[in-house]
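Running this now, will post back.
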Amino acid sequence: MSALDYLPVTVIGGYLGAGKTTLVNYLLRNANGLRLAVLVNEFGELAIDRDLIEAEEEGLISISGGCVCCSFGGDLIAALRNLSQMQPRPQHILIESSGVAKPSAIFDSVALLDGFSADGVVVLSDAETVQENANDKYMGDTVLAQITQADILLLNKCDLVDPQDIAETANWLARQNPNARLVKTKHSVAAPEVVLESFLGRQKITEPHHHLDQMTSMNLIPTTSLDAMNLAKTLAEGEFGLVRAKGFVTDISGDKMLIQIVGRRWAIKAADPKLKDGLVCLGMKEQMRPSQLRALIA
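Update: finished.
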């Protein structure tokens, strides 16, 4: 199976009220031709904006632009396989975990399935309440588990908190999960390519928001063969300000390889040798290190 034949799956987590559903609606509204499929445990848990819905059938909501939403109930694996057999097939699956669920359990299940690619875990945290919730004797363990399982942390509702408190909360989150990349958001609006790798290199925002200006992207075009595994590991573990990266390189073995980075998680897969070399890198403007990134492929 070619690397591009795998169906990418992203898990969105976060405690109740963090803004997961608002984020899902934003992604659906800005899909711009990307066929997204959204999976939720039960339909009642996801309130799709009514103006996005084209049709509703038992177990399936059809959304404008070719996107769909369905529930998986107690059988996530069957729901994923059913989606993979749809025509036309979705190009990316987004699983919204419940507010009290631990997203890594879902991610690990996806990673074991043939034909699917586990894209990563994105967790939203409420800037107003996350530390308070983490210290609560009833919900604290769940909140902390969600945070520590994230590849990307979205610190949401930053418009409701003083800048000094936001900085303190961001530092606290970094101590809880030093491996996650943190992005600050308002109203659950994050650049779609931050949340889903399928948007990298193709997404055009139809609803501009000034705070999306915190992100920047660049292309790396290798002109010679590289050690694909070493490059992927260096991009993920180095301090280059990367949130995501995706693209193709020619390995020193001569094989074409797909490199995927999300947070500090990395993966490589064999790819079609006809594909052109090139990586799209996405990161925070104030943290991105273009010259250091270019040096990796020099």
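The CA atoms of residues 4 and 219 lie 19 Å apart. More later if anyone needs it.
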